[in-house]
Amino acid sequence: MQLIDLKKTIGNKSIIKGLSFDIKAGEVFGFLGPNGAGKTTTIRMMVGLMNITEGDVIIQGKSIKNDYKGAIRHVGAIVENPEMYPFMSGMKNLQHFARMMEGITPERIQEVVSLVGLDKAIHEKAGRYSLGMRQRLGIAQALLHRPSILILDEPTNGLDPSGIREIRKYIRNLAEQENVAVIVSSHLLSEIELMCDRIGIIKNGELIAIESIKSIEVQNDVKDVHIEVHPLESAKDFLEAHTAHKVTVHKKELVLSLTKEQIPKVLKELIHKGMDVYGVRVLQSTLEDKFFDLIGENTIE
Ligand SMILES: Nc1ncnc2c1ncn2[C@@H]1O[C@H](COP(=O)(O)OP(=O)(O)OP(=O)(O)O)[C@@H](O)[C@H]1O
């Protein structure tokens, strides 16, 4: 799937300002941004629920604008809450949806049930399912026609931590087993970081970064190091004059961003210069910090 300079204007308000990125088979792509950033609008355009103002979405070589049918048959999506009949069992719900499509065999239904881990509960009424189970039934339904792309808008919304863990497990499974490209949107990094291979961060209708989780982890190797040293100001002046590190003072401690390898070097320099080092604290820099840095806010809710 490819987004090419996708834009949406409503009235005279530019909501999506030209998004371009690719999503590959077998990867889980996180579409992350604060509320109102434009995730749902983008997803609605991606699945043809909303007209595209400018640009295009290409799915398996087909344009959603010019060949809607050809493009959309490769897509499975849950954009709004999946529609379920609470008085029917999970299985009956799936059979019902399967009848509306062509060529879905009972074997395929069984296969999607196993893919989302609902084998045991599939003959119970859907109305008795937990929210997480309902989400998984929705995913099973979206997978029936073997889409190559699965789009899930806020799949972790409202789930408790164990529900999030389960969804994560099944989403990763199906990316790997079915080689599906999965797009999950979220406004909370912590809820999707463990299930995604890459994360695209959107703010005010613009893509401000695409990070592979590995590269975020590598950058995370730089940590804030707090050093309690005497005399403080001379230590700061000395480090600024003799090293390339930016040094600040916080609560009577020096604060530097250092990699693990740099920590003993800096300490040796200070001790060699005759400074007294009383303590060193290393603060973990989290993915969350990175996200805040990128979107330029301290709070995203
Ligand atoms: N029909 C509309 N008319 C005018 N503005 C709209 C319309 N639909 C959405 N918007 C605006 O577009 C922006 C993006 O909304 P969108 O729902 O896509 O954001 P989102 O990232 O999905 O946020 P959320 O997580 O809250 O759903 C918001 O500022 C919203 O107010």
UniProtKB/TrEMBL annotation:
User: Could you tell me which PROSITE patterns the record lists for this protein?
Assistant: ABC_TRANSPORTER_1, ABC_TRANSPORTER_2
Is Iron-sulfur tagged as a keyword? Answer: no
Question: Organism's domain of life?
Answer: Bacteria
**Which GO terms fall under molecular function for this chain's record?**
ATP binding
Residue span(s) of domain ABC transporter? 1-229
Q: Which InterPro entries match?
A: AAA+_ATPase, ABC_transporter-like_ATP-bd, ABC_transporter-like_CS, P-loop_NTPase
Q: Which UniProt keywords apply?
A: ATP-binding, Nucleotide-binding, Transport
What is stated as this protein's family in its record? Belongs to the ABC transporter superfamily.
Q: What is this protein called?
A: ABC transporter ATP-binding protein
> What species does this protein belong to?
Planococcus shenhongbingii
Lineage here is: Bacteria, Bacillati, Bacillota, Bacilli, Bacillales
